[in-house]
Amino acid sequence: MAQQQPVNKFVLGSKELEGKNAEFQYDKGWYSITDIVGEERNVIYKSRNAQEAYMKWNVYIGRKKERPVPENRKNDNGADRGEHRDPGRNNQREKRNNRDNREIREERESQEGWDNRGGRSRENRDNRNQRDNRDRRDRDRGRNRDREEFEDGKRDYQNRRRRRDNRRDRQQDVQQDME
């Protein structure tokens, strides 16, 4: 029986473009894009980088637009040509954000009970103080309860150790008496 050779070549995609066929394939660690016109095969791209090859394939078949490579992005913003961004360019966006933030803040303040003089009303201030005191009291109770449980556990542990040590001492005394 003849041993079959493993298949190392895979066609990952094919598409007909402008009267020619384009083929995207993987062959022994290489990704390639090939144009096929009749019997003629023309490799137009070859790389070991799978991610880059898939991006090139998607651009080539028109599925996605070409994006600049990360190293080139910072150069494409015009800084290398002496063009600097105008700081006033985002004024409309900043104005809109400030307005939105102000509206949100005013709405929150009205819900929290701020009065017309620009401060909290006495009633809401007193309620808040009572709520804060209650929260503080509950927190302190929980801490005290935890501390008491810890102290009780510590005492129990110390008592068990004392009893164990006393038993050992008595056993040693008994052994010494027997000798």
Can you offer a commentary on this structure?
The mean pLDDT is 78. The protein is flat and about 105 Å long. A 4-stranded antiparallel β-sheet has the order 1-2-3-4, covered by helices on one side. It contains 4 helices and 4 strands. A hairpin with a 2-residue loop joins strand 2 and strand 3. With 179 residues, it is α+β, with helices and mostly antiparallel strands.
Q: Would you report the number of β strands?
A: 4
Instruction: Give the overall pLDDT as a whole number.
Output: 78
Largest sheet: 4 strands, antiparallel
* Structural class label: alpha+beta
Low-confidence stretches: none
Question: Strand arrangement, largest sheet?
Answer: 1-2-3-4
Instruction: Give the radius of gyration.
Output: 39 Å
Shape call: flat
What is the H/E order? EEEEHHHH
Beta-strand proportion: 15-25%
Number of helical segments with 4 or more residues: 4
In angstroms, what separates the terminal alpha carbons? Answer: 86 Å
Helical proportion, percent range? 40-55%
